[in-house]
Amino acid sequence: MGFMQTDIVLASGTGFIYVKDDEHYLITAWHNVAGRDPVSGKCLSDSLAVPDIVTTLFREPERPGNTRREILSLYRDANMCAPAWYEHPIHRRNVDVIALPLAREMRGKYRLFPINAIAFDSDIKEEVADDTFVVGYPFSDLLYAQLPIWKRASIASEPDIDLEQLPKMFVDTATRSGLSGSPVVMQRVGIHGLVDGLPTDSTIIGRIRKFVGVYTGRVGDDELKAQLGIVWKARTIDEIIDGKTFGLMRTPS
Question: Global pTM?
Fold first, then answer.
């Protein structure tokens, strides 16, 4: 996805589709659409510009290998004072994730692939040290068929603990800025669902996958230090959509 102010490309990132109550949303990072650091509020662009639109590709229904670019407005007004996205109803921009409602006509024009419509093994509990993959677009130039890159990571903090009293956890990985807004998928291979070391009716043998959250960037600015990434837990998306809290008026420059 490209985040732009009029015809100036400010950044590229990743987003994905989520469906709830028969409505579809584009999920990505708050800083992607706001163009600001969620902690300091400072502009991320050296030009001090912030995006007013996002451009992204959708797959055609009859030919999913073909894509078409659409422009999505990030504001409900011409003065960029009324964001069109929903942010977390309690933590606001401190949760670096947003949901941008998609017009219903998009379902007729394109083939949408909501991540929560995929048959994941959602009953399996993720654990520290589990393998995960950040699935997104680290390059502004798309690869053949516009397919994403699966960047390997591992869960680095206890998933049951909300770090800094926010619904987030850390993963151990080296990533690029274009991956901000990517879905994170846990993968485990072996025997799963044993109870006291014994199989049950829910035991699975083989590979399991589970959607666990949204990647939005690294901890700190130094790429060569801990190389920890921030993942907002999957439940955050439902909290944002259920809250239907539009983003606040942009911070003055």
Answer: 0.92
